[in-house]
Predict the 3D structure of the following.
Amino acid sequence: MAGPVLVIDDDRDVLHAARVALSGAFTRVETAQAPDDLERRLEAGGFEALLLDMNFAIGDHSGRQGLGLLDRIRALDPSLSVVLMTTFGGVALAVEALKSGASDFVLKPWRNDRLVDAVTVGCEKTRAARKAASSFDLDDAERAEIQRALDFHGRNISRAAAALGMTRQALYRRMGKHGL
Amino acid sequence: MVSSPPGATRFSVGLVARAAAIAVLTYFALQLAVGGRLYATALVVASFAALLFLSLWRAITRADRMLARFVDGVIMGDLERSTATASAGFSRFAQAIELAADKLRRERGERQQRIELLLALLDGVPAALLVLEGSGRVTLANRAARALAREEVSRLDDIGALAGAARRLELLAPGGREIVRLADGRVALASCLGFSTPGAEAQRLICLQDVAQLDAVEIKAWQDLVRVLAHEMLNSLTPIVSLAESLQHGRRRKAEVAEAIEVIGRRSSGLMSFVDRYRKVAEAPRPNVRPIAVGSFMDGLDRLLGPMLAGAGLTYERRIEPATLVIHADQDLLEQAMINLIKNAVDAVSGVASPVILVACRNADDRVEIIVRDNGPGLPAEEIERVFVPFFTTKAGGSGIGLSVARQIALAHHGRLDAGPAPGGGAEFRLTLPNPQVSNLRPAGRFALEA
């Protein structure tokens, strides 16, 4: 089961419907009527996907505010997938949303299985992105450690390999991999 | 000023001398004839006197002839040649006439320039403009009207492009409007303005405006409306569709089912009342226009809104200039529009430290203006037109039709309702209604019509 997910919409009933529709498919479904306190919420929630209404502000029908909020979320957590909800099936708006980094978008009123699919794919994307980011971090750490050992031992491969606790062959292989 | 020329004194002396000579000669002739019985000599002396008199007469009537020639020149519009020929005698008079003629020539030239400028302006107007006398004769047609006619226009019937609409336009009363279909299939909005110039019979100005020019604005308004309608309906349908589906699939606890049904019911009736409100906007009101004394109208409004205004704890200012101001409108509809505008202003100042609402009514030429001003946060430029779009609202719990209904009412009176920034912050709504009693054109119109 994927999740947890956060749903943001200004309409209380839409939030209720989304919670009911998603509850069986995700570990936890949280809802918010306003994007207040978003930073703390994202940090505490550990969400794998965010379902966001493009027109969450009263009287806003352009979707601009939704896109602005999307930018903020991307800055806070670039790995988190955001699925946008909109009542307008405009192609231009959809293209703009995807360009801005949205993972997908669903038209209101939605079909429940389509909604579950879009959010599930979003969760998978988030997991993949986070995994890639962490493995990227490991590689980085390995390269930095080898560089440090080589510098410390005046590029003497045998002593550097001994200091790193690996054979000379293994060190050569890794130096080749990191281009050192 | 005319300076005294050196010849003037000499001329005056000459006149006196001639008159004296005539008197002396006549006396002598009488003495010769009566006293001396020298009839032949008396006759010769009398002839001299007669000749002198004739010369005196001619000198005096020269001024008369000059004046007559000047007046002729004014009447015939021919002031080109010098009116007063240099004359030994009446040079002061001649100079005065020459100056007057000069001034007239200059003023005529300026007036001609002004007429040409106004005619050029009229020709620049994209709408076809026709001025009709009471008899139906066309006295003025601008370029767009001439293009419609393709030839000289003397009556509306001459304009082939009008087809059957010519008769209906001829019957159009001042203040009237009508949509007419032209021969080429185009649709035009015809409006009629009555006016009179001092000393002339009443005339009518017929204005034919291509509806296509209006279309772009109206289509935009409709598109906005459809977008808002679609958004509201689809948003309300979202929980209905989703919850109904959730209820169909999977087992739900009893409380969950009850809650879902409650939401579905609430949103469904919400949709119904929404459609009802839409119907209210879509139905154009038909005003029953009567003269209303603005003072007592505003008193009635105060009684209606007093409790709400007092509860809001704001300063409510009212200005009516002049106090006897009369407006031509449907009392009930105008009341509705004013209530909506004032309620909007009350909402706008709800978060302001010292809220002030001003309602000012005043005469502005051929219309009456009612301004509702608040010192709230004001309207962002991009929202100025959007506030009139039905169901566009920035307020939680707002119906979203107040301002659009107010504008509908203004339009139904052939008036308008505009929004803009108020001086010193805040928003200002300006309701303008035509005042049919004042329709005389100002002098600028008179010049144009003389040509």
Remarks:
- The helical segments of chain A are 12-22, 38-45, 64-76, 91-99, 112-152, 157-164, 168-178.
- The radius of gyration of chain A is 22 Å.
- The first helix of chain A runs from residue 12 to 22.
- Chain A touches chain B through 21 residues (CB under 8 Å).
